[in-house]
């Protein structure tokens, strides 16, 4: 899979006007298809929806700045380790993210766009998983 920043940016521009409706859809999809992850989240999701929306926007805005993206993802990975997230949760999250983006992108969503987002998500997963592993307390 090849990450195409232009496709990421243009599809996000199509999704962006929908704001946190995208993250509401994402969480509804995630919890419907993977109910086992629901206990990892607060009962009221508004703040979490806002955080996810801001993180997604930050990722897209800094897509060409690898150092910034890696720092953002490392911070997210370390925090997610503290929430009880596990590497095996990433495929479910990725599937729900792709579903939400595809739902709101309309004609901006193509097979190439999906492949580009999937490639980006592979990078997100790798960096966050490494950060989660580094954040785990070491046995003494």
From TrEMBL:
Keywords noted in UniProt: Heme, Iron, Metal-binding, Oxygen transport, Transport
Family under the similarity heading: Belongs to the globin family.
Record-given protein name: Globin domain-containing protein
Xref: PANTHER family: FLAVOHEMOPROTEIN (PTHR43396:SF3)
InterPro entries: Globin, Globin-like_sf, Globin/Proto
The Globin domain, residue ranges: 1-133
